[in-house]
Amino acid sequence: MRARVFVMAGACASALTLTAGGTAAAEPATEITVDGLYLVNTDIRPGTYLADGTPDPAAGGCFWRRLWKVQTDTDYNDPNYYIIASDFTRTKPVRVVIKSSDVAFKTENCGAWRLVPDTSTGSFGG
Questions:
Q1: Who wins on pLDDT, 118 or 13?
Q2: CB burial class (10 A; 0-12, 13-18, 19+) of residue 44?
């Protein structure tokens, strides 16, 4: 009987250790190195980002979007409905202010983005 109590206590302690000892979530990134969709406050930090611009002008321009929702198959069919702000440009460099209230940021053909100090100039996208 006594051995059974110790086994049960050990099992409870192990379960508690596994539950409380989970891995800490990674900090959101301050750089975006590839095209894609990034969740704000999860994948990337909000703030002012700067990109070098279109790495291949023959492929078109840089297209970025700040989104208030990530569209799913059951959502309203128009993808433009979910855009807070966007730009298609061939101008270099490219600057955008991603707000903490944005849900996601999508980038295509803009090159690498990096978080820079905010200059509070009221730039496009802010």
A1: 118
A2: buried
Q: What is the C-alpha to C-alpha distance for residues 96 and 85, in angstroms, rounded to an integer?
A: 9
For the stretch 70-97, pLDDT in tens is: 988 898 888 889 999 999 998 889 999 9
Task: Give the pTM.
Answer: 0.72
